[in-house]
Each structure stands twice: as structure tokens, then as C-alpha cells.
Give the backbone structure.
Amino acid sequence: MIDELHVRDVALIRDATIEPATGLTVLTGETGAGKTALLSSIKLLVGERSDAGMVREGSAALEVEGRLFLRGDDEDGTVVRRRVSTDGRGRVELNGHMASVRELADRVGSTVDLCGQHEHQRLLSVQTHAEMLDMWAGAPAAEALEVYRDALSAAGEAAAELERVREMGRATGEKLDEAAFVLRRIDEVDPREGELEELEAQLPRVEHGEALMSAALGARERLAGDDGACDALGDAVRSLGDAARFDERLSGWASTLESALLDIEDVASELRGYADEVDFDPEELDRVQTRLAALEGLRRTYGPRMEDVLRRREEAREVIAAANDGGELERRAAEEVERREAALAEAADALDAVRREAAPRLAAAVSEQMAFLEMGSAGLEVSIDRRPRAEWGSRGPSRVELLYRPAAGLSARPLRKIASGGEVSRVMLAVKVVLGESDACETLVFDEVDAGVGGATAVALASVLARLAKTHQVIVVTHLAQVAVAAERHYLVEKRTGEGEVPETTLTVISGEERVTEVARMLSGDTGAASRDLAREMLSGRAS
């Protein structure tokens, strides 16, 4: 939800702020006043592409800043700041930290749907229709889709394994000879996992065993030998303990030294054990160095890592086994593919069944809303057609598409092909109302949703927008007084002459008589007494 939007130097807007209501907000004004600039600012706010041509003439850069509350876990809000300079360079900040446009779109874009007359990509894009149907169907569709996707992934893995086995089975004599050589070369050394790291850690101790043993024994002698640290500390402890009879403070230091003495005695004991373990053995040193050289040779040839060497050995074994097992490995892989494909087909049938059950209910609900929007007997249908197996994707095994029927008795055809811009706007509005709270978008911005609308349709449109505003934040650019009076908050967009006689778009929240005047203008083009009286009546009717 957009809490506040501050715009500077965008098109004709020099400086403007809008604080939309949580429900329905309308923006009205004369044609050419600059409402499009405000919509462009919202596009920037949600991560759409920028255009240096949007920068206000005479300014070095435009800036759009907004605070949004994104779903339920965003208690403090998310602050977005976007700057675009005249040379096309841009800067994005999220909560004061630099971010990319992609990050902005991922974080904010999915929560705001820009529903302009020529911006119905989501509704017109067939790729999104299955998602809309699944949102309508709810949990059953989500669960069935998850099972299907897991099965699709498993089937893909099985098919890849079968192809790999077949490729090994097609190995030529030259490849077999190469595999046999690799296997023999690696098996001669017979490396084991983690061995190289163990030897690399062991080598310094074997190389410098004599020095290590000498250091350990020398340190132990200084600690626990005659006149060593332990003897000196023991004398100090006893001396302080005796004197503590006369000053209690000395007993604390005696205790501290006694604790240190115990620690030193433990270290001395461990140094003795360490010295006993360390030994300079030329034969062991030679064994470690020889073994390391052999492993390093394998790593240079088949690496760069020992994991690569071990994998290369396993691959060579599989090539040889595949050539010698009479096709058994391939048969097992093919059987696994059959099992996975059977499970996938079952999951696909289950997903289609859920969607086929939900499709007519969604179509009927949207068609009902379309009738309420004075679209006559026009209706929506949902087509579900199973694709060939090779075309199954993550959205499902079938093509889901919304079809538009212009009137009863006429054939339904793809919405994107036959519906006009105004019709698409109203169909989209009907879909939004039906999806309600299941729609992932929290804020809906409508531009020209009232194109070509008037009379009873205008009243119906206003009613539907008000209903939609109960589940979404709705921002509407409108020319209809019936829509304007339904709003919780009303902004007037005007174009005035600013400094230096430069046109400037202003944005003002209006109420009271100012709102009466604007509604009157929208009704009849004038603000005479009759128009104002009708405007008051419409506004009071909304309030009642």
C-alpha cells in the first residue's frame, strides 16, 4: 500500500505530494493537466523503466520518493527513492541503501498493479491466466501445483539420467580405451576422499618433528622442571597464604596464583604427552611426501580438485560398466523414467481436475460482475487445453486462457484479440473484484478505466470500484463525477503558470465546496448553480 508519494521535476510537476487513502482515491482535472505525469511517477516507484525525457525542462534530474507498507510484515514501512538525470543515469535507494531497479521491482512491483487502458499486460498475457485461476481456486490448486512441479522436476532428472546412460552405452572403442586408462591410472594411486587434506596437514609435523619435540620438552622443563615456573608459583602461593593471616587481601591473590599453577601443571603434562607422540621418522616423511606427490599428480591431470578426480574415476567405471552390462543399466534408467512419468501424469490430471472444477465458477463470477458493469450479455469463459507432453512447463500441463464472449450466442475468442480497450478495462475490473483478497496486489492504479462510459454504466462502475476498495487500495484517474463522489480522498490536478511563465502541474486534496465545484465541472463542464446543487446532492448521497 502506498502511504505517501513525493514527486519533484517529473514532466510538468515541479513539486507535488499525494497521500492516498487506504480505500478509494480519485484524481480529476482537465485533460492535459498532468495526471499522466503522476502515473509515470508511480511507475518509477514500483520499478518500471525510466526515461530521461520525463525530467522537467530546465531541471537536472527528477526524483520520486515514497513510503509503502508491503504486506503484513512491513510494520515500519519501506522508503523508496528514485532519481533519474537528464543523461539517463538513475539511482535507486531502498530504506536508505543503494539498490538496483530489479530489486525495486521484485520488492515493490508485485504489490502494485498499474491498470491503464493500454497497460493490461497481465490480463492479456496468457501466461498469467493459470495463476489467476489458481488464486481463485485457493489452497487445492496451490497444493496440486506443488505436487505437479515436484513430479515434473523428478521426471526431468530421470530423463537426464537416461540420456547420460545412453551416451555412455554409445561409447566407441576409443572412449572405452580412454576410460580404462583413466580408471587404471587413478586406481593405481587409489585416492580416498579427504586424504589429500589430511596429508597436507600432517606434512609439516612430520618434516619438523625433531624441532616440535624439542620445543615441547624445553617448554615443559621450564614449567615443571627443577626451579621451573611450577616451583616458583608454588613458593609464591605458600608465601602469600602464610602472610594472609595478617592481611586478608593476600588470600585472593594466593587463590588466583594457585589456579594458574593448576593450569600450568596441566599444560606441562600435555606437553609431555605431545612430545611422546611426535617423532622424526625419515621413512614416514618419505611416505607422506611420496603419497602427496602421487595425489598431486592426479589432481593436475584430472582436477583441479580431488573431488573432480574421484568423479572422473566414477565416470570411467560407469562407461566400462555400461559397455559390459548388456544394456541393464539403460533398462533400469528407462524403467525409472516410466515410473516418474506415470507419477507426473497422475499429478497433471489432478491439477487439471482442480482447475476444471474452478474454471466455470470463476467465469460465472466475473461474468456477473461484467453484467453489473453494464456489459450486457458479454461474458468470460476459461479454456483449459492439455498440451503435448513435450510442452509441459512449470505452470502446468495445460494451456489456461481467458476467453471473451461479446454477447450471448457468439463464440468466445481470446480476450487479447477482440476486446476493445474500454472492454478490457471493465473485464479487468471485474476480475479484480472477483479475486478480491486472493490477489497478490495490494494497490490498484486505474487510468481511463471509465473510457467510453456514461449513464447507468458510470454509476455501476463507481459502485464496483468502491467495492474493490474494501479489499485493495485503489487509485483512479477519472473523468466521471459518479466515480469521483465515491472516493474517500479526492485530488484535483491542475496546470498553472509557474515561475518564468513555465507551465506547472499542481496536486491539491480537495473537500467541501472545492470538491463540489470540481464535481459540478465534471458533470456539465460549468460550475453554475444547477450543477453545484446536483454535485452536492451526489456527494451527500454518498455520505448517507
